[in-house]
Design brief:
4-stranded mixed beta sheet; THAP9-like helix-turn-helix domain-containing protein; THAP9-like_HTH; alpha+beta
């Protein structure tokens, strides 16, 4: 038979494709006869589909079996010991196969035509469906033309999920993993109202809020007060292929309010006590209402929240990872002052004995540098946040209680005010405003940039009476260039850092000798004429640690990415505070938070960062893309910013020599060199030893490990309210088990707090007669009017709170109010 044969399909029964068993065998016998019927039957080929799926029906003729003797005799010839199927039976098989296949094709075509007719009707009535089909076809063609096996986009995954859910009942909606991740991102970034608006208007698109809350709670991103998340940090670094990073610390004002945390059964909002500088976990836990009353009356509510952030330093093959929240806990102003003192001195004092540690950094210096004060072995490297240092530098200039001067030149705000008010200059010449000179705005970093701009410096430099202010603001400009600007070459960073140090040393040495030589009977307070001690020590600290890092890289102890010095700041902490405040919702006017609120919001931000990190490397279907700020698009690859290979060719001693020469040139018009030369402290070596002795004579370090104070004089010469309550326990109160009620009531009542009230019903307050025994830790047992009750611990906090503190939503007023209260 050939392809031109015409098959009479009308002779076939309508149900030929579904025939099975005896009915199928009767059909076979009527069409092609008994021999083929017997061959199919002995092999149990009993249906049309089974027949078409069999590759070689005559294969049984190859086998030698008594059961096959009769069939082979009828259907085959025996030639030279082998059985050969008769031609007529072969032709019958070919005919039957072609007939059944043709019938199957006709059924498929008829079915397709029917579906196509229905689709046309649907397309005409539903333009959206037509657009979707066109979009899917275009997508498919694009992938084929690009010869790509690209993964399914999130849009495709999102549409598929919606269409699949629309054919299900609402109770049976299901969501793929990419949609779940997208839902979490939308809720965290947009808030509850935005999420619900989209969910209820796109049926089947997004999971219900209950499902979303379950996903968040199961994500294991809860953050407990005072807990350092080292295990999670290790996982985060491994996922980003990062080994090094920088830890920063900062604090912010919080709403002073006590909240009960059901997850840890502890009260949050009191100042966290420290043990050798480490916060004590879940310190405020109690099942005694009386003890909680004592805490309220004797312990102040914490005005500050202190956090530690870890900023990973990327390798040469990765972009900048998001900072990681390491810990958060309540703090008071006394603790923060102590922390600033320790961090300001710890790495600055060169001879403080360090307990031997296997992971300590250790330099291998061939020669001793008199101007370098750090010891060669360091357990940690500390830097003062440059943004805070810059604002401190500016605030010192704007202070009304100081009289900054260097040599014959005064350093005063009046020089800047004269520029603004002078008719000789306009704003086009200096770009200054009176707001830039407002001393109350102590955190105005942009003002620092304008005060140290080239335009302002040129005006000051050209006036012989403003040389002191010029030098002071030139140092401010160098701090920004060294530690904040991202494009500064490495050599320029190091040189600028040490110019600042050497100018400050020359200034301090002149001032010390000027005071010593003064014939006035009135003691001169040098602190009125010099920058703050904190600012000066920060300058020394930062320059020393920058050089220390460079030396470690040169000696192959650290990778080159450790020299991204502009990342060494506490701005990641500031960013965390801003992000937490931004999660208050579109219709909420409360941008501040309690410590409990911050921990809850930080958990969401932690989940957000994890999803974002995973999506960057996601190679599966439904990858989610994130918007990139226009300022970050060009700075995403840090290794295009500066050439770190320069570190291998950096001559440290040559750079230091150039720095000292530049510092001497900078102060040559200030009239201090004569006195310094006379006292023989003008040369670098003499100057550095003089300043070193001054630091040693005034500095002490407290050692937390031994509890002793080390006096530097004894050192050898070897070398710093969106309210939220967890109501899960309240919801579970409906599942009350009375089995344990009698046991709970049989406890000794002598220590039970007794309360009086003219009311007998307490609607709106979680005061209950019975509770679920599993939630007993969340309740105090009290007697109200001699009746045993269970008072929820958060309700107990409400009962003991007699004042609701507020915190200004304005940043400037918030800082000022917090400073007054502390």
């Amino acid at each position: 038979m050939n392809s031109n044969n015409i098959y009479n399909l009308s002779t076939l029964p309508d149900n030929v494709s579904t025939l099975k068993g005896d009915e199928f065998y009767k059909f076979i016998q009527s069409v092609v006869g008994e021999p083929l019927h017997d061959i199919l039957k002995i092999q149990l080929i009993d249906s049309t589909q089974s027949f078409l799926d069999t590759k070689d029906i005559f294969e049984i003729c190859k086998y030698d079996s008594p059961d096959l003797f009769e069939i082979k005799t009828k259907s085959c010839f025996k030639i030279n010991g082998e059985y050969v199927v008769k031609v007529g039976i072969k032709n019958s098989l070919t005919y039957l196969t072609a007939l059944l296949k043709k019938n199957q094709e006709e059924l498929i075509n008829n079915n397709n035509n029917s579906h196509r007719q229905i689709s046309y009707e649907l397309l005409n009535k539903n333009p959206l469906l037509r657009s979707l089909i066109n979009w899917y076809e275009e997508n498919e063609n694009t992938n084929l033309n690009n010869n790509s096996d690209s993964k399914q986009s999130f849009l495709s995954s999102f549409i598929d999920n919606i269409t699949n859910n629309l054919s299900r009942s609402k109770r049976n909606y299901q969501y793929n993993e990419s949609v779940k991740r997208f839902a979490l991102l939308l809720y965290i970034l947009g808030g509850k109202l935005a999420y619900e608006l989209i969910r209820i208007n796109l049926p089947g698109a997004l999971p219900h809020m209950m499902t979303l809350n379950r996903l968040i709670s199961n994500s294991n991103h809860n953050i407990n007060e005072g807990e350092f998340q080292f295990d999670r940090l290790k996982q985060y670094l491994n996922s980003n292929d990062v080994q090094f990073g920088f830890v920063s610390e900062d604090c912010t004002g919080v709403i002073r309010k006590i909240k009960y945390d059901a997850n840890t059964n502890s009260f949050i909002g009191f100042s966290t006590p420290l043990d050798n500088g480490i916060p004590l976990l879940q310190f405020y836990q109690t099942d005694s209402f009386e003890k909680l009353k004592t805490w309220f009356s004797t312990i102040k509510k914490a005005p500050l929240l202190n956090i530690h952030m870890f900023q990973p330093l990327p390798s040469s093959h990765t972009s900048l990872p998001s900072p990681f929240l390491l810990s958060a806990y309540d703090a008071d102003s006394k603790y923060m002052r102590a922390m600033r003192l320790v961090s300001g001195f710890f790495a600055t004092l060169p001879n403080f004995k360090l307990h031997q540690h296997p992971n300590a950094f250790k330099l291998n210096l061939i020669s001793e540098w008199c101007w370098f004060y750090l010891r060669q072995e360091q357990l940690f490297l500390f830097l003062q946040d440059p943004t805070h240092l810059v604002t401190k530098w500016r605030n010192r200039l704007l202070s009304s209680t100081v009289q900054l001067c260097i040599g014959q030149q005064t350093i005063t705000i009046e020089h800047l005010r004269d520029i603004i008010e002078s008719g000789q200059y306009t704003k086009l010449d200096h770009n200054l405003t009176r707001t830039d000179l407002n001393p109350k705005d102590r955190q105005n970093y942009r003002s620092c940039e304008r005060l140290s701009s080239d335009d302002v410096l040129n005006i000051l430099k050209n006036n012989t009476n403003t040389q002191g202010t010029f030098v002071y603001l030139q140092l401010l400009r160098l701090i920004i260039t060294t530690y904040i600007q991202t494009t500064t070459p490495l050599k320029t960073r190091l040189k600028s850092a040490w110019i600042i140090v050497f100018v400050c040393r020359l200034w301090l040495a002149w001032l010390k000798n000027k005071i010593f030589k003064s014939q006035s009977s009135t003691p001169i307070n040098k602190d009125k004429y010099f920058i703050t001690r904190t600012a000066y020590l920060s300058v020394e600290l930062n320059a020393h640690n920058l050089l220390y890092l460079i030396l470690l890289v040169q000696q192959k102890q650290l990778p080159k990415e450790s020299l991204h010095i502009f990342l060494f700041n506490s701005q990641s902490c500031e960013g965390m505070f801003r992000n937490a405040r931004s999660l208050s919702g579109a219709y909420s006017t409360i941008v501040n938070f309690t410590t409990h609120d911050f921990l809850r919001r930080a958990a969401k931000l932690s989940l957000l960062n994890k999803i974002k990190c995973n999506e960057l490397t996601n190679q599966t279907d439904g990858r989610i893309l994130f918007p990139i700020h226009h300022k970050r698009k060009t700075n995403n690859d840090l290794f295009t910013i500066q050439n770190l290979d320069d570190v291998d060719y950096l001559d440290i001693e040559q750079v230091i020599s150039e720095s000292y020469e530049a510092s001497v040139e900078l102060i040559e018009n200030l009239g201090i060199t004569a006195l310094l030369k006379k006292q023989q402290i003008y040369k670098l070596e003499k100057l550095s030893k003089f300043i070193f002795n001054e630091l040693n004579s005034k500095s002490k370090v407290y050692d937390n490990l031994t509890g002793t104070i080390h006096d530097d004089n004894d050192m050898s010469s070897e070398s710093d309210d969106c309210e939220y309550e967890n109501n899960d326990d309240e919801n579970n109160d409906n599942n009350i088990s009375t089995d344990g009620d009698e046991d709970a009531a049989s406890d000794n009542d002598e220590n039970v707090e007794r309360l009086q009230s003219i009311k007998t019903m307490f609607s709106g307050t979680r005061i209950k007669d019975k509770i679920n025994p599993d939630l007993a830790n969340s309740y105090f047992k009290v007697k109200i009017n001699d009746t045993m009750k269970f008072l929820h611990k958060q309700s107990a906090v409400w009962l003991l709170t007699d004042k609701n503190d507020r915190l200004s939503t304005d940043r400037l007023l918030r800082v000022m109010e917090d400073s007054k209260q502390n």
